[in-house]
Amino acid sequence: MFEKVIKQANIDHFRKWFERAEKIMIVSHVAPDGDAVGSSLGLYHFFYSQGKKVNIILPNAFPDFLRWMPGAKDILFYDRYKEFADELIEAADVICCLDFNTIKRIDTMADAVLASPARKIMVDHHPHPDDFCRITISHPEISSTSELVFRLICRLGYFEEITRQGAECIYTGMMTDTGSFTYNSNDPQIYYIISELLSKGIDKDEIYRKVYHTYSESRLRLMGYILCNKMEVFPECHAALITLTEEEQKRYNYIKGDSEGFVNIPLQIKGVIFTCFLREDTEKEMIKVSLRSVGTFPCNQLAAEYYNGGGHLNASGGEFYGTMEEATELFRKALIAYKPLLIAKK
Ligand code: 5GP
Ligand code: MN
Q1: Per the CB 3.0–4.6 Å rule, which of 92, 187, 196, 340 could disulfide with 118?
Q2: Is 257 in the pocket of ligand 1 (CB under 6 A)?
Q3: In angstroms, rounded to a whole number, what is the distance separating the alpha carbons of residues 296 and 303?
């Protein structure tokens, strides 16, 4: 068996809510990723198997490569069905807040969730959770919220009830939040859990292909273009920067999600431990900032200090309101400020 991570008091408390609840709402963060969708659907399948009325509402759509996930078609998007979603949020007995630690991460849904009389539980792995839920299950040492969902279901005593579909969703979240078990993935317990998920009949190799081998030709060409022309390496700082303008996105028929994972690529260069990806988002009139590091370099601290953001030690992000030139200039300033740390943490 695996070690207990979630506090017994939290399990006991949630068990009471769960037993009494009829209508359960699951919400996760804006621009949902594999872990947001995987943890939401993992919990959704479990609640459904227990006869609950359960809904998932996400602030906006998730990338196409997650669309195959069992139950994905039942997810509601707040930006499309706001009024209906508001009614469901208001009427819920329990709201499960998955994979986010601060209410602003659910964007325009925040007011409705805060105003709802529902009991709220957070299940998350981002550091420093805000205090907006009665039960807060927050474990930054765990590499995915999906793993926490698995642990929660098991600790409630329902391992047997996890279906293959639910297991597929949980596995997808664990896989995507660890770069297919290439970072934050040294905890032996992860592999114990994977073996338990395999016992449910999941095909992990097929899941990998469904998530990662679905690129469009234009995405692959865009990747070639940015690596050849738009990647700047700062060897003296062990860092790299990639920028992508709106015009370039148009040129390569960019669709949402096409730059997913680009930020990680420069980490393949020997000596590079910190990367930044800046993408112009004219719809939101801002520049989306993605940061990644390896080792102990705190890119969440840099995100908070320079780009009004946050996140994990090794994966964080933020937003910049201004031009690409200004965002790039700010990155150079941040590099100078953080150079001692970047050199020290080589
Ligand atoms: P990504 O680069 O994949 O968009 O985001 C990586 C991680 O950074 C997310 O899981 C999240 O924890 C954090 N993050 C991304 N964007 C923001 C943001 O605008 N604000 C905050 N606080 N965190 C962010
Ligand atoms: Mn996550």
Answers
A1: 92
A2: no
A3: 15
